[in-house]
Amino acid sequence: MLLLMTPTSPYARKCRMFAALKRIDLPCADEPPHAPGSRVSSLNPLAKVPTLLRDDGSAVFDSRVIVQLLDLLAPSGPELLPRDPLRRIDVLRWEATFDGVCDALVLCVMEKRRPVEKQDPQWLERQMAKVEAGLQAGEMALMSRSGPVERLVPGGAPSLTERTWLVGATMTLADLALVAAVGYTRLRAPEVLAGRFWALQALEAKLMVLPAIAITAPPA
Ligand SMILES: N[C@@H](CCC(=O)N[C@@H](CS)C(=O)NCC(=O)O)C(=O)O
After folding, report:
1. Residues 182, 197: contact at Cβ < 8 Å?
2. Is 63 in the pocket of ligand 1 (CB under 6 A)?
3. What is the pLDDT of residues 64-78, one digit of tens each?
4. Which CATH number fits domain 2-73: 3.40.30.10, 3.30.365.10, 3.40.50.720, 3.40.50.2300?
5. What would the pLDDT profile of 29-40 be if each residue is shown by its tens digit?
6. How far apart, in whole angstroms, are the C-alpha atoms of residue 94 and residue 124?
7. How far, in Å, is the centroid of ligand 1 from the Cα of 217?
8. Which atom of ligand 1 is nearest to the CA of 103?
């Protein structure tokens, strides 16, 4: 298997974190879809990364499908995708939410690459509203899951304990999608996070102590 990706792609990061935590060896190749010689567009009609090239030459995309495959390949290890159906739906909904935050940011990055006079400020505003709302949903959920004592720390920043996760009592794919989205927001729109979204950033910090998570952080 080879994951065709870019080091800044939050979707690829989600897959890489998932694989590392499941102890799956997932070699990666930095292969932007539109770079000369890139295999991505011949494997994936949507020409996007991540695209997983399997040993038999077939391809799997997008990131949500890749994660499902990785989970099938490693049924043991941490249960990042809960077996319980309703809990699983909850996790997948958070994955959709945080992937959606990244989708909106990716669109903004592309729009801002156009000449200023061709950019549509209202459209950019609508995309940024999705970013804000998606992050806010995660923030509220985390705040409601952390106990009052955890919230009562100097500066008002919640210090999330070991047992605070987005869904259930253990780390899941929902938390990985959160980390990918927060890291990508910091890369593309750091002003959004400045002095805000304390709970999201606390959960991210808690996970960044794990080498499997830290090593996938996007380059500055
Ligand atoms: N829904 C896709 C989104 C993938 C995506 O948008 N990737 C971006 C890079 S972060 C990309 O390849 N963009 C190139 C393009 O759209 O041409 C997934 O989860 O894998």
Report:
1. yes
2. yes
3. 999 999 999 998 889
4. 3.40.30.10
5. 999 999 999 999
6. 23
7. 17
8. 6
